[in-house]
């Protein structure tokens, strides 16, 4: 079965709650889990930055330690195998089979009879892979799904929740803990008549402000002094940070834990004195509490200005404009990539950068906003979705030097992918023997890594996804058409061969469909414009 290998709570670098924080919420979750008469579904509902995933991680760790967690799936919009609804049920089934022998035996029986069950509809997946084995094995367990709103879903009401509503009453010994922002399709899913009676809801952003402020205060009191200790050379008083400064930060956080964690990252910059950075944040004006107009926007704006606008007194000089262009190109690629890219991959994909060190230079000021790894082969990732939401919304990011316009940068990435494939794709790129059976090539993985690599591999798999998100009108349309025509004329077979070596030849079919749909859109707009003229 297709599954996500890094979706469970033991994978990745997700952090749980600081000890001593979120005690009331975690106690409520523990009581819900142990109450046999309690609701079978718990929805932790919260706005961006309120700490849903951190709580989910801690709850998963606690229930795992108690032997009560059966499976977990932490969704992520940045990973193809963690934002795909088709992967969730097979992944949960795999984990349950690993955890419980009776479940494993039942699941194997299902897969022997129907090996392709994991490719069926979501309804059949849930019934065959999850519900029936759980019923037969009589297992009592907990299943966690975090950040459900980050999965791609075209249904008016969440597809996962719609299916859960059909089966939740058939597995009374199983509890589901689900987190997600209160987006429309998530709300409609939990409001379904068949699911609502089984669901307990906790609106995280409506928790008593005093409790949240106490937790955020403890967070600041614990982590800010560490920024000074880690730098060693910084000389401050033992009372730093002052109590009234922490109180001011708590007011600015307005209940957003993402604000608190971003502040700590900002203050901890190795290139600045922590007291100076903290004083700068304290001096910012007060802000409203709502997402989008909250302190996080002014915080992001200030961090960006400090990082890039301090390059000289004249913000319009050519050197500065080049820096802003680099920022938009690199950050645009990080935000819009369909799979997280490493600095090495970004350097091969983006023209004009050439080496990972240039990518690193462009990203150095953004360590408080992005997860920038030490090595060049690990992916650069978004720390929290509020940052891309901010950068790609011109109403929120009002400084045009930092605004990342998705259509513009999808087109840039498309042309970069086509250029890279034209430059590097060739016949028999991995130097294999003629008519070889790929399964017999013992070092195929090593050859693929050396000869294709992540950057070219990304371009081969996702260039048409960027095309689908590129405008079908405008000044770049002819340039895009010429690049595609040239690519199909000279490199089509080399591209298909590379996809075969990457064991993803099916992507070519979907890619051709994407190209066809884009050309149809271009033709339609051209006809409309001609008729108007």
Which features does this protein show?
single chain, 533 residues, alpha/beta, five-stranded parallel beta sheet, two-stranded antiparallel sheet, 22 helices
Q: What's the layout of helices and strands?
A:
Layout: H1 23-34, E1 41-45, H2 52-65, E2 69-74, H3 85-99, H4 101-113, H5 122-137, E3 141-146, H6 159-167, E4 174-180, H7 184-190, E5 199-203, H8 209-231, H9 243-253, H10 257-267, H11 274-282, H12 295-308, H13 318-336, H14 343-349, H15 356-363, E6 370-371, E7 381-382, H16 386-391, H17 406-424, H18 444-451, H19 453-468, H20 477-490, H21 492-501, H22 506-532
Parallel strand pairs: 1-4, 1-5, 2-3, 3-4
Antiparallel strand pairs: 6-7
Quaternary structure type: single chain
Portion in beta strands: 5-15%
Give the strand line-up of the largest sheet.
2-3-4-1-5
- The whole-number mean of residue pLDDT values reads 88
Number of strands: 7
Q: Give helix and strand order, one letter per element, not per position.
A: HEHEHHHEHEHEHHHHHHHHEEHHHHHHH
Question: Which segments are poorly predicted (pLDDT under 50) over 5 or more consecutive residues?
Answer: 287-294, 311-316
Helical fraction equals: 40-55%
| N-to-C CA distance | 54 Å
Specify Rg, calculated over alpha carbons.
25 Å
**What structural class is derived from the secondary structure elements?**
alpha/beta
Indicate the overall shape.
Answer: globular
Our count of helices gives 22
| Largest sheet geometry | 5 strands, parallel
């Amino acid at each position: 079965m297709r599954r996500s290998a890094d979706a469970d709570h033991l994978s990745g670098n997700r952090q749980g709650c600081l000890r001593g924080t979120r005690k009331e919420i975690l106690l409520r979750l523990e009581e819900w889990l142990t109450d046999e008469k309690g609701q079978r579904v718990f929805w932790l509902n919260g706005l961006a930055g309120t700490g849903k995933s951190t709580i989910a991680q801690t709850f998963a760790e606690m229930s795992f330690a108690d032997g009560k967690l059966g499976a977990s799936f932490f969704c992520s919009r940045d990973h193809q195998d963690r934002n795909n609804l088709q992967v969730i049920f097979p992944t949960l089934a795999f984990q349950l089979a690993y955890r419980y022998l009776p479940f494993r035996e039942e699941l194997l029986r299902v897969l022997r009879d129907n090996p392709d069950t994991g490719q069926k509809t979501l309804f059949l997946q849930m019934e065959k892979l999850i519900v029936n084995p759980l019923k037969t094995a009589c297992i009592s367990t907990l299943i966690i799904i975090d950040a459900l709103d980050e999965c791609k879903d075209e249904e008016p009401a969440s597809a996962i929740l719609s299916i859960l509503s059909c089966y939740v009453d058939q597995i009374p010994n199983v509890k589901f803990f689900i987190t997600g922002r209160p987006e429309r399709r998530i709300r409609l899913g939990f409001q379904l008549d068949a699911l609502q009676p089984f669901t307990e809801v906790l609106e995280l952003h409506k928790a008593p402000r005093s409790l949240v402020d106490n937790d955020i205060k403890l967070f600041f009191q614990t982590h800010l002094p560490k920024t000074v200790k880690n730098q060693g050379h910084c000389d401050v008083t033992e009372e730093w940070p002052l109590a009234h400064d922490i109180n001011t930060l708590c007011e600015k956080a307005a209940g957003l834990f993402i604000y608190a964690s971003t502040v700590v990252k900002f203050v901890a910059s190795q290139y600045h004195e922590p007291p100076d950075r903290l004083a700068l944040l304290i001096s910012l004006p007060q802000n409203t509490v709502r997402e989008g107009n909250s302190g996080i926007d002014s915080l992001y704006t200030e961090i960006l200005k400090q990082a890039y606008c301090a390059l000289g007194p004249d913000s319009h000089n050519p050197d500065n404009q080049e820096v802003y262009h680099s920022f938009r190109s690199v950050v645009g690629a990080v935000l819009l990539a369909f799979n997280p890219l490493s600095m090495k991959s970004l350097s091969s994909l983006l023209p004009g950068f050439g080496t990972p060190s240039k990518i690193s230079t462009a990203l150095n000021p953004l360590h408080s906003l992005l997860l920038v790894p030490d090595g060049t082969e690990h992916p650069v990732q978004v720390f929290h979705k509020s940052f891309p939401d901010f950068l790609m919304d011109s109403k929120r990011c009002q400084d045009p030097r930092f605004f990342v316009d998705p259509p513009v940068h999808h087109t840039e990435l498309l042309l970069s992918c086509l250029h890279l494939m034209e430059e590097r794709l060739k016949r028999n790129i991995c130097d294999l023997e003629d008519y070889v059976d790929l399964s017999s090539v013992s070092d195929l993985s090593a050859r693929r890594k050396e000869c294709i690599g992540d950057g070219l591999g990304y371009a081969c798999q996702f260039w048409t996804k960027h095309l689908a998100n590129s405008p079908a009108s405008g000044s770049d349309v002819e340039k895009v058409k010429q690049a595609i025509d040239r690519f199909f004329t000279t490199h089509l077979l080399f591209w298909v061969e590379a996809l075969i070596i990457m064991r993803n030849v099916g992507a070519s079919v979907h890619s051709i469909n994407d190209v066809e749909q884009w050309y149809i859109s271009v033709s339609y707009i051209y006809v409309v414009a001609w008729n108007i003229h």
